[in-house]
Amino acid sequence: xxxxxxxxxxxxxxxxxxxxxxxxxxxxxxxxxxxxxxxxxxxxxxxxxxxxxxxxxxxxxxxxxxxxxxxxxxxxxxxxxxxxxxxxxxxxxxxxxxxxxxxxxxxxxxxxxxxxxxxxxxxxxxxxxxxxxxxxxxxxxxxxxxxxxxxxxxxxxxxxxxxxxxxxxxxxxxxxxxxxxx
Length: 182
What we know:
CATH 2.40.50.100, 2 domains, mainly beta, 17 strands
């Protein structure tokens, strides 16, 4: 994973590339996930079409240097972009994270007033319940794909599915409400 702190028109943002080397890219900006599809190489001075969550943009980079501010046009609108600090997670840190014990799936969910939320950004690839379904604690409610891995979202308690706020194929952000169980 690559993380960058950038200033865009003097406003600070944290940008993370979650799936290095794979397209479309899964990019997190200030804890909100976006799917970014770049159709060709970004070349200084060239106008390159890109898609962000399916919406098309024309991007032109007038100059690109991590040490000095860059000027980037998006659909004709000019942005001043400057890297504040570039970080890379070391392979040792990544190994430590990968070797960490898997937490109890019930603890991965945050419930607030019977709401089930996403514990990480990703795409809903499968809904296994519908409103009115009875569920037991630990039953799979849906499957969330993030960084090419599928993660089951399980029921934190027994109850009846009251409402589903997502559909298959949509991108969700960490903490976003997926459904309600009464």
